[in-house]
Write a structure and sequence with these properties.
Length: 345
């Protein structure tokens, strides 16, 4: 691959599609796009088509396409050229990330039709956490469950890597990715992960816009035994109808909650701030020394009052507080460029 060859990075979220084209390791992309309300006002096929049209209009011809994939299951961590075998394994892993993997798979399907003659590369959010220490990776379950691949995988790894690229000087840090999905990561001064609050799936950890975060497992068992809930119904309940949305009657946008004047919105915000502060404090205990607290993600970057409330609870004396814009597409470009070049494509 030529050093300045254009690479398209596609980053599907639960209701959006971000895209960026870079022609080298530049902090600023040559072109970038954000398509929102995917799944409600437009479908994924239309979103990919809009990206393709925009890329063509700019005279860009991608020589590779990078795809953000939230969960690679127990077998995939490193960037991987997408083929039929990988796609089959990702379909089997959908229950591990039900909000994101279906959209990612559909995005890949349509993108491969638009750009059939270039390599497509899966970049996994779980990849950064492959080097988690065993004390964080292992879950407190029987060994036979661990042998089934039940472990802490960790998520938002591409976001964390983008922070480390933008701020290589942060030392031992706690990085709070606060957006629609929320997680907190501890990173040592060596740049390696120590802990991530998400676990076997992105549902665990602190509360998010629509996800519960950590929840007593007996809640699920009670709903099954006493109220006839099925696994699919519970999965939807815990991933789509909980978190901020569950507490605030369906409202999940921090901006809407801050502008509201009712008790449910206020309680949702209070719970979110407490959940984030507790997650940050817990992650800090995995570091020998805590030097920096980084906020990233849409909420982390823009919701000043939420950041201030979290920091007030933590009493962050002597800790540098930084806000860093997440750029997952830049990390995807680097990973894909390196892989495709090494393969001689």
């Amino acid at each position: 691959m030529r050093p300045g060859a254009p690479i398209l990075a596609l980053n599907p979220g639960s209701s959006s599609l971000k895209a960026a084209v870079r022609t080298g390791d530049d902090p600023q992309p040559t072109a970038s796009m954000l398509i929102e309300r995917v799944g409600t006002e437009i479908d994924i096929a239309t979103a990919v088509e809009q990206v393709a049209d925009a890329v063509t209009q700019r005279g860009l011809d991608p020589e590779a396409v990078a795809h953000r994939v939230v969960h690679g299951g127990p077998h995939y961590f490193d960037p991987t050229v997408i083929g039929d075998g990988l796609l089959a394994d990702l379909r089997a892993a959908v229950p591990l990330a039900p909000l994101h993997l279906p959209g990612a798979l559909e995005t890949i399907e349509h993108a491969r039709r638009h750009w059939p003659d270039v390599p497509h590369v899966a970049c996994f959010d779980t990849g950064f956490y492959r080097q988690l220490p065993e004390v964080s990776r292992r879950l407190p379950v029987a060994r036979q469950l661990s042998e089934l691949g039940i472990r802490r995988y960790g998520f938002h790894g591409l976001s964390v890597q983008s922070v480390l690229i933008a701020r290589p000087d942060i030392g031992a840090a706690v990085i709070a990715h606060l957006g629609s999905g929320c997680s907190v990561t501890a990173v040592g001064a060596d740049g390696l992960p120590r802990h991530n609050t998400m676990s076997f799936t992105p549902t665990a950890g602190m509360m998010s816009a629509t996800r519960t975060g950590d929840l007593d497992p007996e809640v699920a068992l009670y709903l099954i035994d006493e109220h006839g809930y099925t696994a699919d119904r519970l999965r939807d309940l815990f991933n789509r109808d909980s978190g901020l949305a569950g507490v605030a009657d369906g409202r999940r946008d921090i901006r809407d909650l801050e502008s509201a004047a009712d008790d449910h919105a206020a309680l949702a915000l209070d719970m979110f701030v407490q959940s984030a502060a507790m997650a940050i404090a817990a992650c800090a205990t995995t570091l020998d020394r805590w030097q920096t607290l980084v906020f990233t993600g849409g909420v982390g970057e823009h919701a000043t009052s939420v950041r201030e409330r979290i920091c007030a609870r933590l009493r962050c004396d002597g800790i540098e507080i930084a806000v860093v814009v997440a750029d997952e597409e830049r990390v995807m470009d680097r990973l894909t460029r390196s892989l495709v070049t090494s393969l001689g494509a």
